[in-house]
Design brief:
4-stranded mixed beta sheet; 4 strands; 108 residues; alpha/beta
Length: 108
């Protein structure tokens, strides 16, 4: 099983985009969290949107990382959005009643 996660970044003014692929698990979530937190630290990044289209699986440690990233964004006065969530990651957010916190952006 592939536990690796791949992340690519794109800046469009103050709007930072991150495309994620792979599985966010207890093994990959520390690196995932560190990469996104580092991006949020950048003064040029006022809003961070994570594209989850190629994320097939998120476990509870991945969910904890998302909450930590969201808290960090709020503490910095920045926005953190999720977009294009697939069925399994979306289900985890809905089952834990956390979906509304992430201000999901529904883009194709």
């Amino acid at each position: 099983m592939d536990t690796d996660i791949r992340v690519t970044f794109d800046n469009n003014g103050g709007e930072c985009q991150v495309s994620i692929s792979g599985r966010i698990t207890i093994d990959s979530s520390p690196d995932f969290r560190a990469l996104l937190l580092k991006r949020l630290e950048s003064p040029s990044c006022r809003s961070l949107t994570a594209d989850f289209y190629d994320v097939e699986y998120v476990d509870t440690s991945g969910l904890a990382s998302l909450v930590e990233i969201l808290k960090s964004a709020c503490a910095r006065g920045k926005a953190f959005h999720l977009t294009r969530l697939r069925e399994r990651p979306l289900y985890l957010l809905e089952a834990t009643r956390l979906r509304h916190l992430f201000d999901q952006v529904n883009s194709a």
